[in-house]
Amino acid sequence: MKKWYQSKTMWLNIASGVSAAAGLLVVYLPLLEVAIPAKAYGIVLFVVSILNVGLRKITDTGIA
Questions:
Q1: 26 falls in which pLDDT band (50, 70, 90)?
Q2: Neighbouring residues of 21: CB distance < 8 A, sequence distance ≥ 6
Q3: Side-chain half-sphere of 37: how many Cα atoms within 13 Å?
Q4: How far is residue 51 from each of residues 17, 24, 25, 28, measured CA to CA in Å?
Q5: What is the pTM of this model?
Q6: CB 63 within 8 A of CB 2
């Protein structure tokens, strides 16, 4: 078994969570919308879901 921080799937999900948190910040801090366009969130979530499926297909080692 490998450590959790060696998992590409875990890092992708962490990055996804950070992106979601940034999306919440845009709601409360409108100035951030200049850096993170609101229209990009749907695209980002779609890409993340496709990447998660791909990583699950190539992963054969569990994490501890």
A1: low
A2: none
A3: 5
A4: 14, 22, 24, 29
A5: 0.54
A6: yes
Per-residue pLDDT, averaged over 4-26, amounts to 81
Local confidence band at 35 (pLDDT 50, 70, 90 cut-offs): low
Q: Please state, in angstroms and rounded to a whole number, the distance separating the CA atoms of residues 63 and 54.
A: 17
Task: Between 5 and 25, name the one with better pLDDT.
Answer: 5
- Strand-pair partners of 63: 2
Beta strands in the chain (DSSP E): none
Task: Report the amino acid identity of residue 44.
Answer: V
**Contact between 15 and 23 (Cβ < 8 Å):** no
